[in-house]
Amino acid sequence: MVKEIPLVWLPAAACTGCSVSLLNSDSPTIKNVLVDPVVPGVHINLRFHPTIMAGAGEQALKALEETRVLYKGGYVLVVDGAIPTSPTESYCVMGERNGVPVTIASRFVELAWDAMAILAVGTCASFGGIPAGGTNPGNCVTVRKMMEVKGIKKPLINIPGCPPHPDWIVGTVASIVLNGLPGPNDLDDNLRPKAFFGKLIHENCPRRAYFDEGKFAKKFGEEGCLYELGCKGPITHADCPTRRWNGGTNWVIGAGSPCLGCTQPEFMSLPYYEKVTDIQLPVVGAYSQAAKEAK
Amino acid sequence: MAKITIDPVTRLEGHLKIETEVENGIVKDARSTGNLFRGIELILRGRDPRDAQVIAQRICGVCPQSHGIAATLCLDSAFGLGDKIPDNARIMRNLIHGSHVAQDHVLHFYHLAALDYVDIADVAKYQGKDAELNSVKDFITRGELGPFAPRYEGDYRLSPEVNQMAAAHYLQALELRRFGHETVGIFGGKIPHSVGIVPGGVTDVPTVDKITAFLWKVKKLQDFINTVYIPDVMAVANAYRDYFEIGIGCKNLLSYGAYDLQGDVADLTIRKRLFKQGTLSADFKFDSLDITKISEGVKYSWYKDSSTGRHPSSGATEPEHSKNDAYSWVKAPRYGGKVYEVGPLARILVSYVNGDKTIKGLVDTALAQLKVPPSALFSVMGRHLARALDAKIIAENLEKWLFELKPGQPTYTPYEIPQEAMGMGLTEGSRGALGHWIEIKDKKIANYQAVVPTTWNASPRDDAGNPGPMEQALIGTRIKDRDNPFELVRIVRSFDPCLACAIH
């Protein structure tokens, strides 16, 4: 007998990049995740995901509403995108009830109340991200903020990244399935799983030796540490250097680009191609000349 | 008159509602509503112009690479670099862009469109030994069918054997498009939201190991496109031949052209490209591209009326959600005041009528096999066929371009950010003509405007009241079964709409 874990995926003010990144899952493949028991005896039953589901319109929304009723307290709610709140919640709408448009904000609140746990997938859902940048035209808020405002006390895990690595999403779900919900020591202050976000990019960067030597690239295509070109590795928590992206093919710094800091709450206020100034480097490399100068 | 509303239209990117008025089984009126506004054009204001390439990609996670290219071309032009991009960089940009588009088409046909034509439930009858298909059979037997149920029931026409084969290809295509993203990653760093393309060139350098890795990934893409994707499109087209007469649309096509073949011409409207710039009318007449003819209307969009009718170089985005008569966040771009469709069909046919012998040969061969005239391409199946041929043409050129790379030669041209400047970037995204416009003041972004493929295709009525291309394609359609309105979703999905793109 295979245990079914229902999961619904609610797209808010998002770009669908998080979903496409999930499609890039390698081991397990996305087919393994959706069709096969993802770990022995457990199947993730994706009951609602507008980008891939067969049904449309009312029949699709019925699947969403049925999940909330039939599996009350037993389903996982995934949100990608931040949630618009004002000047009107109507900046993001999905479906109608009795001819009246239903906002994503109200759908989120309904679904969150009855969920077992909530995953904020991507930097927009976790920290506001892109739509909350600049003047934040739709007053987009994070999933965490929306839960606080509405008094919803459910387990929440932030899986940031623009987009998140598929392993971070699948790994977090697998961890819940195998070990239950994360304990307080499993998440950092930003509610990110320490397993994936516990270290700085800078700590494991293959170009770290260049930083310690003080050898910095001055323009794209040059050898050296990308710090002067704006690399946010020294302030960004993620395991990209060791995990690498797209099936291990490459990663940001591997293509000669500075890290952009996309897993950080401050992602949208960073100048991507300007050197970071007020960095607080961890103990590693504290004796290097460059690190001292940087401080 | 009865109303059929589909909200959300699934298996596309973003938040789309389709409303139709149906009389005696015929769609008399149709409205396309984009339901999410983020305001990325406003969010970009005041930032370092170089950041546009990063943030504009986040307009869309399905086709970020197209926005990365458009933003970069826009910055190149604003920074005076349009004729100074080293050949290596031009080629690497093409490789990143092209491999992304090719996998995007595979994703669209199998994972967004196919479930409208393929009855995946037939896998329950499968008796063979294919392990993947048997695992799907187990899945169906267990009875929890999300995300493959519920669905529209009825008009599935393929035989059980063909459905089973198509289901196997659906799974194979999942692997293949993942693989396509690995190809993008070789020079792009990662994807979605790559990092390799920047104003002045690219961040990476070509090395023999990367060239070799790219080659063999592209060969796999080519193999899938030629032996699986195109034959499957032909099989579906043969089984659903009436869809060469459904979803015809406005019959005006627009292409900006894409994949630069020269790096020393700044003017994007005449730069030599793999796909040509230009327009095509219903009588297959070619006309050259005149970018001054573009304007965006907002009478029926949720923006202030005072901003209507502008050219995107001086465009404005001023949300006003309470506006009477408006029904969408998508603006209504028009070319010379007329409704134009964009996409792979436009891209292919503009080159077809502009004397590209290779493209003409490919299209004519496919049309001969299907026994339909060129005019049948203005249709649901025409769009699918054009998209598949687009993937083939791109994948074949990727291999060719790869060997034009010269390791050790420059990949980047340094520059200063100008105090004040205007810029324009034109390219073809997976879904069609894509333009970005920038105005720089005090070295910061003062204005940024994007007119995106789905802005054209999913646009609402323009100020003169003309419905957008998708709306026009829906109007006049006969709905066989109003509880299972396959026709509507098949028409909409043939455009491969992307709503995060369209509104941004």
Provide an overview of this structure.
The complex is a heterodimer of chains A (295) and B (504). Chain A is an alpha/beta fold and 295 residues long. Chain A contains twelve helices and nine strands. Chain A has helices at 17-23, 30-34, 57-70, 104-113, 123-127, 143-150, 166-179, 194-197, 201-204, 208-213, 240-243, 289-294; strands spanning 3-11, 42-48, 76-80, 83-84, 93-97, 100-103, 117-121, 140-141, 156-159. In chain A, the strands form three sheets. Chain A has a five-stranded parallel beta sheet, sandwiched between helices. In chain A, strand 5 and strand 6 (100-103) form a beta hairpin. The termini of chain A are far apart. In chain B, helix 4 (87-113) packs antiparallel against helix 6, helix 4 (87-113) runs parallel beside helix 7 (208-239) and helix 4 (87-113) packs antiparallel against helix 10. In chain B, strands 1-2-3 form a three-stranded antiparallel beta sheet. Chain B has a three-stranded antiparallel beta sheet with strand order 6-9-10, with helices on one face. A three-stranded antiparallel beta sheet of chain B has the order 13-14-15. Chain B contains 14 helices and 15 strands. The mean pLDDT of chain B is 97. By secondary structure, chain B is α+β, with helices and mostly antiparallel strands. Chain B has helices at 40-43, 52-57, 64-78, 87-113, 131-142, 160-188, 208-239, 344-353, 357-370, 380-402, 453-457, 469-474, 486-494, 499-503, and strands at residues 2-6, 16-23, 26-34, 197-198, 201-202, 253-255, 258-260, 273-275, 278-280, 286-287, 294-297, 332-335, 420-429, 432-441, 444-451. The chains are: A alpha/beta (295), B alpha+beta (504). At the A-B interface, strand 1, helix 1, helix 2, strand 2 and helix 3 of A face helix 1, helix 4, helix 5, helix 6 and strand 5 of B.
